[in-house]
Amino acid sequence: MSPITEQRAGVFGLQVGIAGCGKVGTSLALALTQAGVAVSAVYSRTLNRAEQLATLVNAAIYHPQKSELSLPKVDVWIVAVNDDNISEVVHLLHQGFPESLIAHTSGGCDTIQLQPLHPRVGVFYPLQTFSEFRLLDWSEIPVFVSSMHESDTAVLHALASTITMKAVEIKEEDRAIIHLAAVFINNFVNAMSAIALDILKQKKLDFYLLMPLLDETVEKIRLSDPLNAQTGPAMRGDLQTIERHLGLLNQFPSEYKEVYQTVSALITKYLRKDP
Prior knowledge:
By secondary structure, this protein is of the alpha/beta class. The chain has helices at 3-11, 23-34, 47-57, 83-96, 150-161, 172-202, 211-223, 226-229, 233-236, 239-248, 254-271, and strands spanning 15-19, 38-43, 60-61, 76-79, 101-104, 121-126, 143-147, 167-169.
């Protein structure tokens, strides 16, 4: 058996805790459980959320204020909370589990700043958007892992490999860049879609008529790249159409017009290639 295979096999003897029972934590806990990894404890400041997830994965609920309760065994805690709360949760977990490996799921949190709070901190960052009403195929979701210690990184990599074929060890600075790029491709694209929805809704037009266009846009990017896939009036240098659109946008919130102008200027400057 190879060292990698041995490391991955050893993961199934680990006890994992999930801190944060929202969309990411719940999806991750279910994926790990389905893969055969034991989720032995969950924690949430919202008790009913902790109770719901604990029932789903047959885990104990960690109560930091109830020291009289025996603590479950947890080798690795995965902290799936908002960035503003990560330090607080790491500090809290350190009190009850000073020897556990604690990894957060954030794309942007500076892990080095967590070191004074706990000696074994790391990253378990799934590059995906999560929703309560969506079941995801974890096997295709990239999960980026890192830590301050090589042995802990190996544990996180092996743990990620139980649920995805795309477990990737990554440097701290590279993770921040990937997170930045992810905001453009996910959050900003969704915001643009929300603008399109509002424009059509105000005119009582069906937003879902745009779905085939959105699907084809994604497919073209998948088969080629965004530069080659770019089309539209700004890419063509079609100033007449752009001016017509700007005139139509006068009846909508002024921010929509600003977005149109800014993105069109960006396309013209950075993407358009004049013959």
